[in-house]
Task: inverse folding
């Protein structure tokens, strides 16, 4: 099965796909679309692994999303069992999310940071890259700056090359450069097809550190804006990336497949 497109981050495990998951995956297989399906808590991590086991064109990540900190604690025993599956290619999505918490809520911030640190240590033990989620509060870069601070403190636990992916990147070009200097790839999503806010950041990422993702079912690209997103739409994101960077779409398509395979040590499709 050739890999025509690699959607580096999706949630085919989420309930929005309950009605037509198999159909979606069948269409993906026919079009040569592969994806990494991402866990955000214990249940969805387990489901991601099950999907990866069932379908050749699906890989999985396992971890706990920072906004789940109120309901879930890190469970090393549970994840130690799950991580043994050979199609688990990263830990996360993990990171910090300031979007829905008030700046004064230091309790939640501390909990999120501890949860993130636990996953950095776990990824280090299992020699896996990180799938990083960062979402700043409106008009700031706070979550990204805090993540960079944590990464700085945990430097000895990070891989120098292919440390992971900063998923759904929505930061400045300076923030992108900071992550790149720490060995992280950067992935972009649907919003780049309808806002030029991220153009500068898109242009500073070297071609070999650029990934494309849908984060489906969320954030569908134009012309599907507002509808449920799906991995097949990654082609629209790749076309937009190429246009913004002044590069050939075919070249960017090939680069994103190659980069996703390298960052997540995926040996298929050769
Ligand atoms: Zn996600």
Result:
């Amino acid at each position: 099965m050739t890999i025509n497109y690699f959607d580096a981050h999706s949630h085919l495990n989420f309930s929005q796909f309950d009605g037509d998951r198999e159909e979606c995956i069948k269409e993906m297989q026919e079009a040569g679309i592969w994806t990494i399906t991402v866990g955000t808590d214990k249940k969805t991590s387990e489901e991601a692994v099950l999907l990866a086991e069932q379908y050749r064109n699906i890989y999985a990540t396992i971890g706990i999303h920072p906004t789940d900190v109120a309901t879930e604690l890190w469970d090393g025993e549970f994840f130690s069992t799950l991580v043994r599956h050979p199609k688990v290619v990263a830990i996360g999505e993990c990171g910090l999310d300031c979007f829905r918490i008030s700046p004064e809520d230091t309790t939640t911030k501390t909990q999120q940071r501890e949860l993130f640190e636990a996953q950095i240590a776990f990824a280090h033990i299992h020699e896996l890259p990180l799938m990083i989620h960062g979402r700043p509060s409106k008009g700031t870069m706070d979550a990204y700056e805090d993540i960079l601070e944590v990464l700085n403190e945990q430097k000895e636990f990070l891989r120098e090359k292919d440390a992971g992916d900063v998923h759904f990147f929505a930061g400045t070009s300076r923030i992108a450069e900071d992550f790149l200097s720490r060995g992280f790839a950067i992935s972009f999503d649907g919003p780049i097809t309808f806002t030029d806010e991220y153009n500068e950041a898109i242009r500073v990422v070297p071609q070999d550190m650029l990934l494309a993702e849908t984060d489906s079912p969320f954030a569908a690209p134009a012309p599907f804006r507002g509808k449920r997103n799906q991995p097949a739409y990654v082609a629209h994101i790749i076309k937009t990336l190429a246009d913004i960077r002044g590069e050939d779409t075919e070249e960017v398509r090939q680069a994103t497949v190659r980069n996703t395979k390298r960052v997540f040590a995926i040996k298929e499709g050769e």
Q: What stands out?
A: The mean pLDDT is 96. Residues 9, 11, 38, 93, 215 surround zinc ion (CB under 6 Å).
